[in-house]
Amino acid sequence: MAVRFRKSAGGDRAASETAVASLGLGQHVTFEELLDVVSQAHGKPIEIREIDNSAIPAVTGLWIEKEKKSIILVPSGDNRLHRTHAACHEFGHILLRHQGCGGVETANPSVFQHIGSRKGIKRMLARSLDWNETERAAEHVAYLLSLALLPKEPASPSDFERTFL
Length: 165
What we know:
Elements: H1 10-21, H2 31-42, E1 46-51, E2 62-66, E3 70-75, H3 80-95, H4 103-107, H5 109-119, E4 121-126, H6 133-149, H7 159-162
Parallel strand pairs: 1-3
Antiparallel strand pairs: 2-3, 2-4
Helix pairs in contact: 1-6, 2-3, 3-6
């Protein structure tokens, strides 16, 4: 299946930007600070868990919402930058209040059919290979949140140096 990337519609981008702006992030935040702020906006704790890549093949991030907390699963074999981005993508689903997807059930139907009722899972979202509006909006939030994690570089006093920035 080919992955198609298209630019999000203006309304989706505006919703993503509004969701991130509502967090009131400063110039620079740590990942732990970001996790706390998103948890507060979500109204319940969010736990990040690293799992073996083979547990959920082809899934780079998975948000599981339960009654009292949410859990984001990221593959332990991925590098730290990729795990951080996957978590920020799942934060996007949380902040935009997305309702779920069929990606996980399609990939692992026998596993996920029965877990929900037994484990109190209300909702599951995974990054999908089908880049629909929901995925594009969550990805835009991930980019915006990632910018808050990057340290701001001081402006160069040199006009010459600024031409390369």
